[in-house]
Design brief:
The chain is 80% helix and 0% strand. It is an all-alpha fold and 195 residues long. The mean pLDDT is 82.
Length: 195
């Protein structure tokens, strides 16, 4: 043990100890970035799975709505177009597609209001219940994803990890944001009157 301590007290030993310490610190920072990035990716995969379930349920609902009126097929066609390319999209493209689908879903709900007999059908009730369940899971997954993105981006923005993070090639992740349509005030009085 004493020869090691004596070596560490020499200039060569101090340099070696400093190099080992720097390597351990850089390795620790790198491992932390990898861990945070993997948490972001894991949270995104959960969102991805719920989005696919949502596409399935919304497609079924769009089929039901489209069967009531040929004019309503436009929503169904747009939804099918987004869904067909979804698997090959990048994560950022998937986020944009999810926001677009939210707009389609709102438009579809307005369309359904025109068909009281559709709203009363068991198929519609089952589909809307399934969609509501998926939306709740999706909302929880988005919160988890955004929390992990926040941690990752914070670590990537703090000194000195920001320097090492950029050298190591880590890039900021995008958060899920509310669509413009979701940010607007809702005229509840008008909706209750059927406007």
């Amino acid at each position: 043990m004493e020869p090691i301590i004596q070596f560490l007290l020499t200039p060569a030993g101090m340099i070696l100890a400093a190099i080992v310490l720097v390597v351990l610190i850089i390795g620790g920072i790198y491992n932390r970035f990898v861990s945070l990035r993997n948490r972001v990716e894991e949270a995104f995969r959960a969102i991805d799975a719920y989005l696919e379930q949502r596409f399935d349920q919304l497609t079924k609902l769009a089929d039901a709505v489209a069967s009531y009126n040929e004019h309503e097929r436009k929503t169904h066609t747009e939804l099918a177009k987004i869904r067909s390319g979804y698997r090959t999209m990048s994560p950022d493209e998937k986020i944009a597609a999810a926001n677009e689908v939210e707009g389609l879903e709102s438009r579809m709900r307005v369309q359904v209001e025109r068909y009281p007999e559709l709203k009363a059908s068991e198929i519609y009730k089952d589909l809307t219940k399934a969609i509501t369940d998926i939306e709740e899971k999706l909302s929880a997954s988005r919160r988890s994803y955004n929390a992990n993105v926040y941690k990752f981006n914070t670590k990537l923005g703090q000194f000195p990890t920001n320097i090492l993070g950029s050298i190591m090639g880590f890039k900021k992740a995008e958060m899920f944001k509310a669509t413009e349509e979701k940010r607007q005030d809702i005229d509840l009085r008008g909706r209750l009157r059927g406007e």
